[in-house]
Fold each of these.
Amino acid sequence: MRSREYGPDLTPPWKRQQPAPEVPAERDLVVEEAASGFCGAVVRCERTAEGFTVTLEDRLGKHRVFPLVPRGFLLEGRVVTLVRPAGPAPAKGPGRTASGSVAVPGARARVARESRIYVEGRHDAELVERVWGDDLRIEGVVVEYLEGIDDLPAVVADFAPGPGRRLGVLVDHLLPGTKEHRIAARVTGAAVLVVGHPYIDVWQAVKPSSVGIPGWPDVPYEEEWKEGVCRRLGWPVDTPAAWKRILAKVDSYKDLEPALLAKVEELIDFVTAEE
């Protein structure tokens, strides 16, 4: 006689492996492949001859493809089963872009304007693309990054702003009396608008609640800010991986602080205004 407490394979209930939670393989989700230890952000999920696979990109830009198998990945240390993301739900009304604008289905990207928006660094550019990318393509506005603003006067001179060729610049930590404020004052003019937010780095413009932390920690001035943030949050001191983790939590303008939202909208209005 077989006990009702045992399955057909005679495995006792307390030894049976529990199913892992299913997690959609959304783009930019950072996971670790359990067998190889390869850690990276989801780039795409697709059907192949061997079944569904997921492509991960590590912090060095290396891509690897893995099958979507049960209990095949770790998410923040927990075993999970990655599954295909659900398709978009049917729209019941006018759709919205990530910035909150009314979406224009089927709209093609406009030919790029001569006007441009410059931001300080790559992270700023990726965040702007994440939230305002659809709007910028329709308006034909290209976003470029500077890697700091020390050379901004030379950059502006080389750009040669003028009628129909406006330049908008977004600066981190733009406060009166700072070096950034003095540089901005030197280049601002009829065809150049420099605006800024009060945050040390654009990371702080992402709401802590969206990232899942109580707040952005205070880091002493003499310590590199991003590394200090990672240490105080208990994250590996790996700023590219930390940024991917933060950016993955941004789905729309609702995840950003109003101080950044207002400035980016101001720049878009400026570079798209009719002369």
Note: The first helix runs from residue 122 to 139.
Amino acid sequence: MRFGRRRERAQPLISVVVPAYDVADYLPAALDSALSQSHQALEIVVVDDGSTDASGAIADAYARRDRRIHVVHTANQGLGAARNEGLQHVSGEYLAFLDSDDVLPANAYAVLLASLQRSGADFATGSIVRWDGDRLVEPPWMRRIHRPDRAAVTVEEHPEILGDVFAWNKLFRASFWGSAGLAWPEGIRYEDQPTTTDAFLRGRFDVRSEVVYRWRIRHDGSSITQQRSSLRDLEDRLETKRRSLASVEAHGSRDVREVFVDRVLAGDLPRYFAEIPGCSDEWWAMLHAGVLEFWGERSLTNSGLTPVHRLTGWLVEQDRRADAAAVMTYVASLGRPADRVQTSQGPRIDLPVIDPATVEPAALALRSYET
């Protein structure tokens, strides 16, 4: 690695690693957004990860037009390996990652860099928007954990930030990246979470409310986020949770661990619960085992999930597949929040597809802020 080599320049150099695999339709927009940054002192390393389309040729053409772009061609090894390869070719004082099908707002790096220069923190993270049809929408949970702005804080001061698992809405000091021993896992999907978890645990960081990234979720089946019903996807998701939890436990803070398990690790489960109707026996068995592994003692009834998903989580814990499938099917058909009723034990959700007498009261109960 060539981290942190100083150069004589008016602005500090930001190295941007861009892994690219079969993204010919999207790569130009990604590179244009990087080249159009208000902070112009950039070194953009595109790693053509064995693309079978024109991605490599597109990257080469951009490199011929702008000397800030360098292209590395490799055999296909996957996202984590491509990012790690890119890190072998950087020389900037600061380090960023850009996925080749996404787009940066024009001031993204300027916002994060200015924050780091004021605070002296190890890295900075900002909020994101994602495309919802033709609209750009800021996920409510991202808005929540990025407000208010914070400077040079630790994970003990803001443990819920561990839910910000993305590689690409952050700017790192290259010196911190190297001294903290950070790298991306290889040969596994969802590689962002273990590494970003380690970064939050090992450093001081700024949290910015500004949107610094525009995330494109492709709906052509090529995005890994569209493949949750596969065994490989679920296996990788559970493994990255396992690695991230191991880091949190090694960190040694009971409070951080509790927030991490209840609010962070559980956060993506609803998208998997939606796959329960029609899932294979093997997939169900893996989901059931995974839920017991992470929440068998504490139970998802204590998590930050919505009431319906707390109930579904409890049903998964109990290995009640038919009931979990019925709940998810009913909720999908409802198109609105489940009804709520008042009982002698307090308010609870009301679902006609399940007998409340067969369910632990905590799995149906509403909390004060949900009534």
Note: Residues 268 and 305 are 9 Å apart (CA to CA).
Amino acid sequence: MTKRDIPTVARLFSKAFRDRKGEVAPDLEGYLETVFFGSPHYRPEHGSIVYEGGSGDVASAILAVPMEFTVHGRPIIAKLLCAFMADGKDGAAGAARLARQMRATRQDLCFSDNSSPVSADHWVAGGGAVLPIQSLEWQRSFRPLAAGAIACGRYLPLSHSRGVLGLLGWFDGLLRRQRPSLVPVAAAGCRTNRASPEEFFRCAGAMMERFPIRPTWSKPEFDWLVSVASLNQSLGSLQYRTVIAEDGSVIGAFLFFGRKGREATVLNVLCAAGHEFDVTGQMFSHLDREGYAQASGIAQPFLMNAISRQRWLSFKHRGYFCMVTRHAEIKDAALRNEIYIGGLASESWSRLLTDF
């Protein structure tokens, strides 16, 4: 894919995923260029691929963002696959050709975090694997009536108006007094501090070292990722926190989008080994004190025990988290849950999921 393909790909995306025949959202083309040509690791061989039909137009495409990963101490360039689309007979033929390019024998590491059941079957047929835990999203309610209204907002826009949420907030206050379990318990002796992107970056690098397969997150790549993630204003403002133990040491960090009084969408939670309960407990307590109706985030195997101890918690299937790799050591480690992936190292931050 080259930059001259962007207008055609924008139309193809709008038709395939937004049911628009020819209409393209005003800033979609600019966003596609920023995300799929702007990464510090972008090279044509690491980027998106397209198939041109008989008329010379793009008939199918796979959008990809290159990301650097560390695999047992060595760097590789992985691909985050964000959208697979096709149009017409040429598109169907092209989709089959493109899918063959994504087979395990051809890739160091490719992954997607929101595949459909049909797509997941194709990933597995191509030598890939499904990560079942990362395919789940947890949701923790703090103010369930307001959270329910927010969830209905897609179908009933008035349900999450300021007036309705204000009224429901009053009833939530009564409910919280009757159901103390709605209020998360903070970790004893811990506190949460606001952090800068640089502070989060320093903490994240050290805390991910426990995983043999993880995002490398060089400073240029991390800065670029948070800059494009920050464009997703529909999820709120991007915020950073650190968790401090009683002795003053930093034991955890989390990164989230926050819409004040509504929802906190957690991208990444990291902690020092052995502090999973402290960090998750402190995170939920902090988000509750900040007034969010609920919090949600991608499930991670190393946090499942701690997350699952929360009250008023539910899990839902968010789309299959799939991966392919030609390296047996990567696939084996992923299936043993020895991989850190998701959040910034996934599509969770993309406007293509929530906008346009």
Note: The radius of gyration is 21 Å.
Amino acid sequence: MKFALCNEVLQPLPFAQQCRWAADLGYDGLEVAPFTLADDPMSITDEQAAGFRKVAEDHGLRIFGLHWLLVAPAGLSIVSEDARLRRRTMDVMTRLVELCVALGGSYLVHGSPKQRSVPGGNTREQAWERARECLQAAGEAAARCGVTYCLEPLSPRETDLFNTVEEAARMVDEIGLPALRTMIDCSAAGQAEAEPVQALMERWMPRGVIGHVQVNDPNRRGPGQGAMEFGPILQVMLRMEEAGNFPGIVGVEPFDYVPDGPGCAAHSLGYLRGVLQGLQTHG
């Protein structure tokens, strides 16, 4: 199992310093939010992406994947009534898939709650159909590039579309592309799902629809900084990784940094490594 730190935790440090911090703390790599690399990620060339990749590798890290995909450029939406805006959004999604490859990544996490929430005056069914068009384009791009595009279920406090793994998996099944999957964010699942996260993993991972996991507490702090117990969760992930039902990369994605970004990153990894060591020692 490998741990990736979501790099916005270390903002506003420059990327090279983010890499140095993450490496010194013991992370295996980074999960990158594209808006941290450029105000407009669409301006990043393949050559520049390769440069970021080399900086990470020089620090002994990999860029495992991308997340927070549609924060920039501003105004994107996969559910807008405006077909031209949806086409622009699909173009951005496709380019981000290409950038993921250039950065050395293997997956993308599509959260971006504001850019998928049902527009006023529209029905959920209308938003669903528009989202399907955009997600199919992203899945096709991911298939061409050999990466996985993951639709992230988020809690109702963040968005009103794709709130559970079951709902996201239904969209994945409708589109029917192996490169398009869903994923589990522990904080969102702890808020929105009816069953514990480990039971959710037991149910969905063997079906081959879970492409990634992000660990965080429902209080939006890092693992070990809230009430969620990660021992049972990591235990299931270890078993599913061994069975080939989980890729084995875990994104550490707190939102509330206590005491600060570096301190939260250090505490999260120390807690997770300690839990893992206990599981592996005691079977």
Note: The mean pLDDT is 97.
